[in-house]
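Sample entry (227 residues):
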Amino acid sequence: MMSIEEILKLNKKISFRRLVYSKYKSSWVFMAILLLVIGIILIIYWILSDFDIKKIWTLILGLISSFITGKHLFNKNTRIIKRYYKYSLLKNGNWNYTSLMKIRKKTIKRELTGKIDLTNENLLFIIDCLKKESEILKFNYSLLINGIVIISSMYIIAYLWNYVNYATNTNDDPGAYKIIAGISFLIISILIYMEFLIFRESIISRKRKKYRLIRVFENIYLEKNAK
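Predicted structure, serialized as tokens:
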């Protein structure tokens, strides 16, 4: 019998990176990185040249290089899927999201063979547990809220301290408050950046991975009951 923690670890085994990218040859990776770097350099060069129309050829070559990189990766992905996961291909020999779902379902079934029976009851239990696990990951702005409260409190205390000592010290520099306000604004801006572009994206990415695993088990359940 497997635990929910062990089932959650299966998420890594059905990721596109594990299923496809891990089978890349080093020469494929080198070629993709080389083409991408060349494309980025050419595009940046055109931007730094103040968008000179005479040098627009660098932009065109950069875009072509980026397109070739994407095409190169897609062709290699197709080659790997045709070699290792031929059963998932469409009738026309191509692959899409449905193909990936077939691969993931087969991978999950193989990993669970001899460890857990995929009965309707067990599948529904696993799906329910995975959904509850995904609900734990919620974005609550705690870092931003705590940061604003702490900075605001410090600013208010500094203001009150100056107000209390105003009678004995009339030479207080008002510029100090501008500096404090500027630093506070900078810190809050950094916190906003961290909340929305780092922590939030991290949570969203983790939730998507969990939903991917849930979707696989849901499809296994539907497949089992469609027979």
